[in-house]
């Protein structure tokens, strides 16, 4: 979202101060800044004399964790996170950020409060029905883990970093010597000469002992997988059905022959009457 805000604000400068936004953001968040800076003064790194505190690193790590949660959604598993890698990546990002901000300060870059207010007003993430909404703004800022004042300070830094990057990207140049060197590399050619030497088998004489010795040393290279050659004949009844014609009397004779060999069978039925001996 911060990248989106920075991209949408490039080349745009506000000329008026939005008083209502300044008032909204001046009343809250100040305590959080002083509390955060006072709770943990242990420095984890220094960049040209400027400290990166443990609190800043913890916030950066937490921010990266939240970004992963948003990106992965239901697939996010906190147990799979490598806290050391997460911490190292966050620290590297803070160092790069410090260097960019120092470069912006050395180059006298600035971003006014009025321009910052206008950026916030024009940010779609802070709008409801196309208009800025303070409650929506507070909700998004809290989700990012910032107070209002912290967010404004962070957003100002993002704008300055964007100016530095845009300035570097827009001022790229090459010297005449570099152009000439590139042209020479791009257009250079190479000449090659080759000689084909044909082998003469007749010029080499090997004894049987030398051949056998070489074979014994490289016997595995001359081995082939086991192979079997099989001849077989396959007979299927279905293949002969259309080649045989059977008459009805032949079928009847075969049937009678088979039934004649069967044992005699009889079918009996009886009725049982119950008799009372006492009557």
TrEMBL record:
Report if keyword Chaperone is assigned: yes
TM stretches of this protein: 12-34
A single Gene Ontology MF term assigned here is:
isomerase activity
Q: Which GO terms describe its cellular component?
A: plasma membrane
Where's it mainly located? membrane
UniProt keyword list? Cell membrane, Chaperone, Isomerase, Membrane, Transmembrane, Transmembrane helix
One Pfam family linked to the record: SurA_N_3
Would the keyword Cell membrane turn up in this protein's UniProt record? yes
Q: Where is the protein found, in the record's own terms? A: Cell membrane
Q: Which InterPro entries match?
A: PpiD_chaperone, Trigger_fact/SurA_dom_sf
Superkingdom of the organism of origin: Bacteria
Among PANTHER family, the record links this protein to: PEPTIDYL-PROLYL CIS-TRANS ISOMERASE D, PERIPLASMIC CHAPERONE PPID
Provide the protein name.
Peptidyl-prolyl cis-trans isomerase D
Organism of derivation: Pseudomonas fluorescens
What gene is this protein a product of?
Answer: ppiD
């Amino acid at each position: 979202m911060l990248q989106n805000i920075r991209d949408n604000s490039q080349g745009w400068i506000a000329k008026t101060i939005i008083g209502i936004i300044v008032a909204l953001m001046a009343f809250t968040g100040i305590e959080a800044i002083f509390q955060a800076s006072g709770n943990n003064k242990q420095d984890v790194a220094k960049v040209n004399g400027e400290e990166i505190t443990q609190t800043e690193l913890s916030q950066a790590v937490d921010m990266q964790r939240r970004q992963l949660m948003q990106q992965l959604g239901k697939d996010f598993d906190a147990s799979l996170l490598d806290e050391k890698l997460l911490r190292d990546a966050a620290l590297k990002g803070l160092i790069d950020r410090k260097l960019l901000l120092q470069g912006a300060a050395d180059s006298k870059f600035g971003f006014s409060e009025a321009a910052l207010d206008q950026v916030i007003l024009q940010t779609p993430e802070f709008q409801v029905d196309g208009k800025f909404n303070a409650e929506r703004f507070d909700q998004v800022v809290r989700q990012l883990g910032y107070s209002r004042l912290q967010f404004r300070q962070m957003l100002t830094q993002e704008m300055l970093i964007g100016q530095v990057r845009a300035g570097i990207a827009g001022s790229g140049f090459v010297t005449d010597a570099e152009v000439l060197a590139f042209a020479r590399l791009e257009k250079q050619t190479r000449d090659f000469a080759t000689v084909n030497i044909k082998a003469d088998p007749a010029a080499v004489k090997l004894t049987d002992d030398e051949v056998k010795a070489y074979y014994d040393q490289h016997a595995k290279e001359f081995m082939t997988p086991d192979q079997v050659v099989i001849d077989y004949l396959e007979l299927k009844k279905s293949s002969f059905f259309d080649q045989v014609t059977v008459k009805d009397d032949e079928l009847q004779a075969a049937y009678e022959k088979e039934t004649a060999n069967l044992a005699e069978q009889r079918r009996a039925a009886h009725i049982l009457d119950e008799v009372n001996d006492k009557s």
